[in-house]
Amino acid sequence: MRINEVDDFSQSVANDINIHFTSAQALQNKIQNPTEYGLSEDDFENHDLVIIWDESHHGNVQTQRGQIEFQNFDNWEATINYLLKLNPKNILLEFSATMDFENSAIEQKYENKRIYDYSLKQFRLDRYSKEIKANQIKTEPLERILIAILSSQFKKKVFAYHGKLIKPVVLAKSKTISDSRESYIKFVDLMSSINSSTINKLRGFQNELLNKAFKYFDSLNLSDEDLIAEIKNDFSETKLISIDTENESEANQIVVNTLEQENNPIRLIFAVDKLNEGWDVLNLFDIARLYDTRDARSNVPGKTTIQEAQLIGRGARYCPFEYEGEDNYKRKFDNDLEHPLRVCETLHYHCSYNPRYIDELTTALKQIGIIEEERIEYELTLKNSFKSSKLYKSGFLYGNKKISSLDH
User: Fold this and answer.
1) pLDDT in tens, 393-402
2) How do residues 60-92 score in pLDDT, each as one tens digit?
3) Cα–Cα distances in Å, from 43 out to 30, 50, 318?
4) Contact at 8 Å (CB) between 312 and 349?
5) Which residues sit opposite 172 in a β-bridge?
6) 3-12, 303-312, 314-323 — which is least confidently predicted?
7) 379, exposed or middle or buried, with CB in 10 Å at 0-12, 13-18, 19+?
8) Which has the closest alpha carbon to 12: 52, 41, 39, 51?
9) Maximum Cα–Cα distance across the chain
């Protein structure tokens, strides 16, 4: 048995798997405007077909309107419903991570049709996701990108030290297309002028992630000059991509959907919202949010915050790697938070210091199930006077642990 790609099902080979790849919009156009050698109603009437629809939550236009009868083809839901009825043996398989079951009409539509419901919450509990950490820091957007790529370079080196040739990718997310273009241009200029004073400024930030990164670079005897040379090479303009042009090329779509492949050089993506949906990438480890606005009302996350949470949910998919016989596709260090590879199981979301926004984003992340409902994080800050004390500089802390008397 072979798998064949076909333009229409008159080309089908008996006993083979014959597939026609299309989008819902293109399928609707083909049915409304049939051509001599293209897909048409005849294919669905004369063959037993399975329609596999990804992101199928877009196919509920009439259901959301409360319309039961499908009388025209002005939307995808009506078109798909018509094609299914042309042959009783036709089947529709839908896939969606964001079906709105809070809508009673949608809940009723799928009441006896759901085959399997695998929530993001269960996905995380089963350890198939990265952990999510917000890295809040008071910086300008351009510096935020630089912090994100230092974090990315840190993870790349940790991977390499453990024999993993994995290329971490950074996403720089802007609010508008014009902002994204401007950020792209400014970043290219920054790469041409970055120097040791730039790195020294970042070394002076009181930021846990940056401190860990620089400590690791120093442990490798990597000088700031060598670090700058690496960054200039790894994030040169040939390894950047912007995907928010009005006429997006098919080639760019292929590039951003093959980021894990060895022959794909891209390290940094500039985008607005073209990756909010339908983007499957495993080696995204850092997202830099290049704007500081909020859209919550009465502490309820707004549309933009929810979209940001969904994007984080996509980037949180685990990047598989082998380690001492552990499952390649699951987190391995939940009980060993100090292990160096733990940072390679973490997606960092770099944003401006804004506790209210983080609270709103955390609420949205809890709603989609990608972080625990009960998670509470505290930031403990030491006084400067204590950090200059002898106890802090040269003292030791000892902790007791319980040992069962049954073990002796």
Assistant:
1) 888 877 777 6
2) 877 877 766 655 667 888 888 888 999 999 999
3) 12, 12, 39
4) yes
5) 270, 288
6) 303-312
7) exposed
8) 39
9) 85
